[in-house]
Amino acid sequence: MADVKREGGGLATAGAAPVDGGGGAGTARLLLWLVVTALGVRQLVALLRLPPGERFLDLEAWAAFGGVPRPSGELYADGGYSGTPFAALVLTPLKRAGEQGLGLGWTFGTLLLVVAVGVVAARALPRPAQGRTVLPAVPVAVALLLLSLPVRNTFFLGQTSVLPVLLVLLGCCVTRDARARGALIGVAAAFQPALLLFAVFLWCTGHRRAAGWTAGVFGAAAALAWAVLPEDSAAYWLRHPAGLGLGDPAEVANQSLYGLVLRLGLSGPVALLVLLAVAAVVCHVGLRRAVRYAEDGQTLLAVALTGCVAVAVAPVSWQHQLLWVLLTVAGRAGRGASDRYVWPVAVVLVMTLPARMLLPNMELLSPVRDNILLLTAVAAACCVPFLRRAEREFARPRPTVHAPPGASRLRGVPLLPFWRRVLTRPNLLLELLLIRVGYSAYSQVRMAAAGSRATAEAHGEQIHAIERFLLLDIEHRVNHAVFRTGWLEGFLNFYYTSFHFVVPLTVLGVLYVRRPDAYRWARTALGFATLLALLGFWLYPLAPPRLMPALGFIDTVHGVQDFSRPDYGSLTAFTNQYAAMPSLHFGWSLWCGVVVVALAPKLWMRLLGLLHPLFTVCAIVGTANHWVLDAVGGAMVVAAGFGLVHVLAGPRPRVRTGAMREPAPQPAPGAGPVPVAGSGQETGPVPEAVRDGATRAKGAGGGEPEAEGEGGRVPSPG
């Protein structure tokens, strides 16, 4: 992070040194800037294609497009404008521009501000470790900013929220002069009063002159606005203190502690006491941590944490003001190399995706889902254990254990060194987030892939004709036999509706706990199979037998249907009834069977694992939900999924004996050989972490099992 130096009473920053990665780095930089350009153009086109009245809503409320400009004293009359009087004063000259001209200028100006924030933030990142190459930080930072919800809302609403962030970053991470720093942060606070908290931050870090200038410039800006716009200033500071009451503070868009208290249903003195107590704790803990990281030389992280505290304790903090949360990715949390990605990935997901994609639409989870941005800000400010620069893992995280390269087990199938197979257990929080986001994306793509009824029925006729030619058209006979057998119909209906998700999730859970070495292999194969299935849904919408008119199939699960408007209860609006080829009901069940057969130590376990795909194929055919060829398609995408994992990551290490546990940490370079865990033999200096891991493994049951690959042996996860 940026180094903190007590020179001239200010925070001096040492930006990231440029990394010369050769031609590869130059190509990566060019590609990233092309991505940034595409994102910027997309944002501009999407915004300007909206009709007037649906874009620049806050800007229009201030400028009064299409009507008489607001007279003095009526800036906050209808609650449409939520900015400060100083912001209105600064932007007054822009009222002379027409709507189209102001919209274009505003959008391009905001784009430039976003790029400037990305440049300043990237330059404040820590220098890369010697000998390492990193992706160019500036285009990555700008791309993340453009994708973030606060920036997208800023474009859509026509807000000034990016400018205060840039001013604070310039004051804390660029300038060394106390007066310039105070002036920049003071002007930022004049746009967003909650940022006056940075004066406290400066005071606590020993930059009291800059803190005084911040307070003075803020007061001067407010006084100037009061002199020019006295009635509007009185309305803002007296009737709506710091914006309180401009808009409904209980709306989900208000991601502040005050909004959280209101959404929880608290009111009166109890709500006030709870709010003051929680805000005091957040201020104390958050500012204390920010000061500590500033003194540690991590200025960008300290600034981000202070901004998170400011938006949390402010009376109102709209979504477009929460850009500080994204800047907390500058902190390094996690002592292991694989854990280092957990916090950045979680923050990026929270800041770029709608909350409904991160958490299921369940009443129990609504307090978390509706306040997820606020909770992330509070967690960053008060809870996340970011590493300090003096800690060993800050620059050298604990290495990840990989399997050695091995030869292909399939003759004629080459292996691509795309990634190395990881043997350690992944972070649980990150896995849950990725699974949830992946399934949400899968559901949306599956819904978007719905074709027309005529196309789906035509494809159904094609499949039926192919099956008749291949003598596989058994669906009608099986379906009617099931319908005539009451107990069998009930069993297959229950199996079809109940085990599609339960069994794969159970298998993943068992692998995560018992077989971390194989978890990633199985999970990645399942992901590839699902992605390939989405291509099938998109390219070949297919009506299942139960939705084929005149063929006489019976929908045993949902009963007789109107083919033009099928009804499946509460799931009707959330399912694509023509996503039948390939069958993921059978594909996922076959994946479960393959994993169990490959990994289960007992014969009876393997036989039990094979029952699930057998029952599933009987259920999908007997209930008329799939054709036989749909099951064949499901088997093909599963085979392709395992094949892709084999080609990209190499063969799965074979277990020789015993249940496998997670491997002990590996030594740092030059630390000496690692003893065989549990053998009691040490042939050289051994790091304490490895020695402790070996001791624990020995106490847990003696010698370590080994994982054997085609290219040799590696210590198995212990």
TrEMBL record:
<feature type="transmembrane region" description="Helical">
    <location>
        <begin position="210"/>
        <end position="229"/>
    </location>
</feature>
<feature type="transmembrane region" description="Helical">
    <location>
        <begin position="494"/>
        <end position="513"/>
    </location>
</feature>
<comment type="similarity">
    <text>Belongs to the glycosyltransferase 87 family.</text>
</comment>
<dbReference type="InterPro" id="IPR026841">
    <property type="entry name" value="Aur1/Ipt1"/>
</dbReference>
<dbReference type="InterPro" id="IPR018584">
    <property type="entry name" value="GT87"/>
</dbReference>
<keyword id="KW-0808">Transferase</keyword>
<feature type="transmembrane region" description="Helical">
    <location>
        <begin position="183"/>
        <end position="203"/>
    </location>
</feature>
<dbReference type="Pfam" id="PF09594">
    <property type="entry name" value="GT87"/>
</dbReference>
<keyword id="KW-0328">Glycosyltransferase</keyword>
<feature type="transmembrane region" description="Helical">
    <location>
        <begin position="578"/>
        <end position="600"/>
    </location>
</feature>
<feature type="region of interest" description="Disordered">
    <location>
        <begin position="656"/>
        <end position="718"/>
    </location>
</feature>
<dbReference type="GO" id="GO:0005886">
    <property type="term" value="C:plasma membrane"/>
</dbReference>
<feature type="transmembrane region" description="Helical">
    <location>
        <begin position="371"/>
        <end position="388"/>
    </location>
</feature>
<keyword id="KW-0472">Membrane</keyword>
<protein>
    <submittedName>
        <fullName>Integral membrane protein</fullName>
        <ecNumber>2.4.1.-</ecNumber>
    </submittedName>
</protein>
<dbReference type="InterPro" id="IPR052185">
    <property type="entry name" value="IPC_Synthase-Related"/>
</dbReference>
<keyword id="KW-0812">Transmembrane</keyword>
<feature type="transmembrane region" description="Helical">
    <location>
        <begin position="156"/>
        <end position="177"/>
    </location>
</feature>
<feature type="transmembrane region" description="Helical">
    <location>
        <begin position="525"/>
        <end position="543"/>
    </location>
</feature>
<feature type="transmembrane region" description="Helical">
    <location>
        <begin position="299"/>
        <end position="318"/>
    </location>
</feature>
<feature type="transmembrane region" description="Helical">
    <location>
        <begin position="266"/>
        <end position="287"/>
    </location>
</feature>
<keyword id="KW-1003">Cell membrane</keyword>
<feature type="transmembrane region" description="Helical">
    <location>
        <begin position="131"/>
        <end position="149"/>
    </location>
</feature>
<keyword id="KW-1133">Transmembrane helix</keyword>
<feature type="transmembrane region" description="Helical">
    <location>
        <begin position="104"/>
        <end position="125"/>
    </location>
</feature>
<feature type="domain" description="Inositolphosphotransferase Aur1/Ipt1">
    <location>
        <begin position="462"/>
        <end position="643"/>
    </location>
</feature>
<dbReference type="GO" id="GO:0016758">
    <property type="term" value="F:hexosyltransferase activity"/>
</dbReference>
<feature type="transmembrane region" description="Helical">
    <location>
        <begin position="341"/>
        <end position="359"/>
    </location>
</feature>
<dbReference type="Pfam" id="PF14378">
    <property type="entry name" value="PAP2_3"/>
</dbReference>
<feature type="transmembrane region" description="Helical">
    <location>
        <begin position="631"/>
        <end position="651"/>
    </location>
</feature>
<feature type="transmembrane region" description="Helical">
    <location>
        <begin position="607"/>
        <end position="625"/>
    </location>
</feature>
